[in-house]
Amino acid sequence: MPNAIRIHKAGGPEVLKWEEVEVGEPGPREVRIRQAAAGLNFIDVYHRTGLYPQRMPFTPGVEGAGTVESVGEGVEGFSPGDRVAYAGPPGGYAEERLIDADRLVKLPHEIGFDTAAAMMLQGMTARMLLRAVHDVKDGDTILVHAAAGGVGLILCQWANALGATVIGTVSTEEKAELARAHGCDHPILYTKQDFVAEVAKLTAGQKVPVVYDSVGKTTFMQSLDCLRPRGLMVSFGNASGPVDPISPLVLSQKGSLFLTRPTLFHYIASRAELEQSARELFDIVRSGKVKIEVKQRFALRDAAEAHRALEARKTSGSTIFEV
């Protein structure tokens, strides 16, 4: 039987268990995939800890790529042997899995399994942030937190390709160099510099129209101070912990600001939205304007080790599990 990581109760990385699983045959409109690689994302930590509750037991992982083994009744457009990828419901930390066919996309032959597993969730998230949540245009200046992370590196490159000037926060000199090499015009070492003051200096006091913040608790309030009047605060993650509740009056006091907490799956809910998002991602990666940097690789059975590294901020770029 194939193996998978299973979680039977919420907790630390130690709850990630390597177990044999019965996958079964695909039901109506389902596809069975033999996975080649799976991606690691902070949402997996939120699922593991119970911040985003799941029905137990379950297999985490919302990003992966592999080959279709079999299809269920009513499936159209996919056949055994097809190369596919997804960003979808949990179940990715597995050698084989079932998934609804409408959550899959075919993988262009130019894009390898490892690259796909590292970019589907992160890349479509970047596309959502830059094209749907806020339409970044040539000449804009934006602030990206965690600029050397998986989403951060893609965001910086894609925004740069759109003609934007990118200010990014990072924790180390090494991450600053990595971000700079991937489209971040002005890396800020937040461990040594006041990023609010630096943003004001870099924009001649004008500040920025949008902040992309996946860090959460430790950066949220200061991020509001980086926005110009009527600017948009995009909180799309909580790597440092959930943001404390705030009064809407704070948004008024700081310049009639806008606040959103987008989730990718609301932006790819329909088949048409998913296909458009994936198509734009594939196109920009194939163009060479966005390079997917797989910086860490783990065996799937070592998922606990990978989670510890992610939570300790010892990772940069994308991380994948080799299945």
TrEMBL record:
The keyword NADP applies. InterPro entries: ADH-like_C (IPR013149), ADH-like_N (IPR013154), ER (IPR020843), GroES-like_sf (IPR011032), NAD(P)-bd_dom_sf (IPR036291), QOR-like (IPR047618). SMART domains: PKS_ER. Residues 11-321 form the Enoyl reductase (ER) domain. Keywords: NADP, Oxidoreductase. It comes from the Bacteria. Signal peptide: none annotated. Pfam families: ADH_N, ADH_zinc_N. PANTHER family: QUINONE OXIDOREDUCTASE PIG3-RELATED, QUINONE OXIDOREDUCTASE-RELATED. This is Quinone oxidoreductase. It comes from Sphingomonas anseongensis. The lineage of its organism: Bacteria, Pseudomonadati, Pseudomonadota, Alphaproteobacteria, Sphingomonadales.
